[in-house]
Amino acid sequence: MTYLTHFTYPTANQESDFICGIQGTSYNTFYPFRVLSARNRGLERLDFEPITVLYGGNGSGKSTALNIIAEKLEIKRESIYNKSNFYPNYVNMCKAKLNGNLPTTSRIITSDDVFDHMLNIRSLNEGIDQKREEIFKDYLDTKNKKLQMQSLEDYEQLSKIVKARSQTQSKYVQGELMGNIAEYSNGESAFMYFTERIAENSLYILDEPENSLSPKYQIELAQFIEDSVRFYGCQIIMATHSPFLLAMRGAKVYDLDESPAKVKKWTELENIRIYHEFFSKQKPSYETSSPPFQA
What we know:
Layout: E1 4-8, H1 12-20, H2 36-40, E2 45-47, E3 51-55, H3 62-73, H4 87-93, E4 95-98, E5 107-110, H5 111-143, H6 155-166, H7 169-176, H8 186-197, E6 203-207, H9 215-232, E7 235-239, H10 243-246, E8 252-255, E9 262-264, H11 270-288
Helix pairs in contact: 5-6, 5-7, 5-8, 8-9
């Protein structure tokens, strides 16, 4: 499904006219003016497919391009995005062509969102670990406590003592404490973040989703995105360096390192050529190396 068919940014002449029209005030930056037009000398329009990828090195403007699209479409986001004084002016000069109504469940997901999510899990787990230690101590104290029934008020405490003596320490703690969310690695947690938030029939803008993902989970995310587009009516627009995500079937890839930006096959991108050359040079060494140690 293609909800957003194309998006246009201000031309270099339009940007110059706007900046020249500002009189009597000095500014340190005109961001996001002069970013896309200066870096790529004419990134004026993006035409989208169900999967569209913006590729480029640091400073190429791919994250800026995505955030401007998200701002123009007024879609949901979690992390706060720092805006300059001229950000609204720039966004107002952009134009988006939609195919019908944009689903309200559409959203932008950034690497900051995923990182904050993992920090929240870590913070929660630290609290759980502290509580677990308290329950360990309570288990030992309760198990060794002596109590004689003198009234009904002692019944609850006696039941707790019997429970502690009839269970192992680990089973007692499991019964008293919720499961530790950190049973998942950072990579697993990051991958689950995407699978839990990407629903059916929506537009999703992903800014470098490969961050925090191992190659294994990058491959799984690529498959998940392909399935979400093919079977569940999603459109994905993303920025990435990951060869696994760049190689997704049917993805339209813009190379923002070119001036002007060009649509390319993923195998033509500089990063992919570097990977290919590196592994080609290493091939003789790892083909003739000794097999791994086996017990």
